[in-house]
Fold this protein.
Amino acid sequence: QVQLVETGGGLVQAGGSLELSCATSVSILSINAMGWYRQAPGKQRELVARIFRGGITNYADSVKGRFTISRDNAKNSVYLQMNSLQLEDTAVYYCHAVNFDQRDYWGQGTQVTVTS
């Protein structure tokens, strides 16, 4: 069982920055991939960014060049640095983990609200 705890959401003006953090209850090196998803009101949950155990990263086209996913193995944490935030980035952001046995786990979600 993997528990994920997100922190760092909040209110920010357009053009600003926020960093989200997600701490895992197990060694992050035992997890195949960790990522961030988001869900805006009335929309489906979508992948924002993902980092695999080997370090390969994927990003949604809408955040490329603005968001950066990173990992701190010593702290068993993954981060999402969000720069140049836009109104469309407003959503609940969820941390996600997939084990090597394909079981997946979700955090409780953290609200990010971008204002004009």
